[in-house]
């Protein structure tokens, strides 16, 4: 395994201003010290409830949001130190697929124009070559040349996400960051889009970061999965270990909410209690202590370190 992307201690703190002078009075720790590596050709799933910082993390990797602190290294380039124009060139190699393809596709542009756009932005190909690539990509994602002159509203949700995926592939990227790419789709369509993404990964040797709010969606597509809670990664492991032997009480709770297809398989149901606390006023110590059935006094005082408990299996919890 060869790392493609390395993320070290990534943080995003948004200031909260207050008082008559509008000075920063505190900050929301949207992402608070996240570290992980993504290897070439793998899919890393990143899972957590809304507000856990998973989308902000995804956007910081492409510098669509600038990090407050930390390092992102893509191959041998440290993205956090690049100028905007240098960063623009890198975006050819890192592309994003968004949750709501309708919101991310310009409704006044034909599919042809939408797909051509990334090539124009990066000055790639002649007009003829660009058009050929559009038609090639439409076929690759299961649409056809016949769709090139149509507008986004003329497609179903699933077809629109195929267009979003085609657009991400136009510049032949190495890494795709997919932020809840199937969450807005009907369950019956979700698996078609997931299968397409898996086929494309094999065919074009893509590396994926797949962001989702539930562990069920990423199970079959991910080689490794990271679980986030209130701006921190609380567990990271290869998928098999994470699903068979989750260590963190939060992961255990998330998993007990996932339907289990095998009726002989019994997992103690342990539903999440309480609401997710506000990231502007997170609990002390382990931020999960307000919802954790195993919390003790030390959990309220001391922040658990993110440690390698077994080879390749990381967890941030005082139980280990
Ligand atoms: Fe629960 Fe304590 Fe572990 Fe946090 S550190 S998850 S509160 S047992
Ligand atoms: Mg999100």
Automatic annotation (TrEMBL):
Name of the protein this chain belongs to: ABC transporter ATP-binding protein
PANTHER family reported in the protein's UniProt record: D,D-DIPEPTIDE TRANSPORT ATP-BINDING PROTEIN DDPF-RELATED, TRANSPORT ATP-BINDING PROTEIN
NCBIfam families attached to this UniProt entry: oligo_HPY, PRK11308.1
Keywords: ATP-binding, Nucleotide-binding, Transport
Keyword Nuclease: no
A GO MF label: ATP binding
Transmembrane segments: none
Superkingdom, natural source: Bacteria
Domain ABC transporter, chain residue ranges per copy: 5-255
Similarity comment: Belongs to the ABC transporter superfamily.
InterPro entries tied to this protein: AAA+_ATPase, ABC_transp_ATP-bind, ABC_transporter-like_ATP-bd, ABC_transporter-like_CS, Oligopep_ABC_C, P-loop_NTPase
CDD domains: ABC_NikE_OppD_transporters
